[in-house]
Amino acid sequence: MHEPDSAARAAVAAFNARAKREGWQQHCDADLKFRHPDLSAVYAVWQARAGHRLMPARRDMGPQHLKPYLSRIALLERVATDPVRWRWRLLGTRITQIIGERTGKYLDEDAPPRQVARWVASAQLVVGLKRPLRFVGRVLANEKEYLFSELLFMPLADEEAAPRFMMGFGFYSAERPADFQEDSILVNA
Questions:
Q1: pLDDT in tens, 47-62
Q2: Is 45 helix (H, G, I), strand (E, B) or coil?
Q3: Domain locations in the chain?
Q4: Burial class for 119, CB neighbours closer than 10 Å (0-12, 13-18, 19+)
Q5: Which of 29, 88, 140, 174 is 20 to 30 A from 98 in CA distance terms?
Q6: Which one has a higher pLDDT value, 112 or 80?
Q7: CA 142 to chain centre
């Protein structure tokens, strides 16, 4: 994967400015500076499955390729574009423990508006840029605000090679990541 270009960096900067303004307690890292080695490993699977394409198709990222990581995988599908609407297609058991069981539900069905806005903006950024991105932040779901997350979000294509899915993989911990800059992220907490 090539380095983020100026347009990708500008889009990430705009996302981070919005995240700060809206109190999402999250920031995006286009440089993919992973702390956890499994994030690098899943990213390597994504790259290998993409081959010469911008991104792999959803069918290319099956359970056989991700077996050691399945409990930490989430899959979202963009089911409408005007207005944008996303649906949870799959949630691994570790993700479900953090945000609750949401498989088959729309993002806006049972989450607070601030969380929905954060999830939708993150997914839209990833599929819009057609590139994986790293997100670091505080969990805002299920009264788990004491947890921090380090997440890798990766776009996946549909059968027509259009970006329509976002696969997430991540880690949650009570330990604050070194690059979580609380005073620059916590605005409207």
A1: 999 999 999 999 999 9
A2: helix
A3: 6-179
A4: buried
A5: 29
A6: 80
A7: 18
Domain 6-179 part of CATH 3.30.450.20: yes
Q: pLDDT grade, residue 185 (50/70/90)?
A: very low
Residues 53 and 47: beta-carbon distance below 8 Å: no
Structure tokens at 29: 């890292």
Residue at 143: amino acid letter: E
174 pLDDT higher than 90: no
Give the three-class secondary structure for 106.
strand
Cα–Cα distance, 84 to 163 (Å, whole number)? 14
Single-letter residue type at 5: D
Asked whether residue 142 carries a pLDDT value surpassing 90, the answer given is no
Which amino acid appears at position 3 of this protein? E
Q: Which amino acid is at 2?
A: H
Confidence of residue 139 (pLDDT cuts 50, 70, 90): confident
Gap between the Cα atoms of 171 and 152, Å rounded: 9
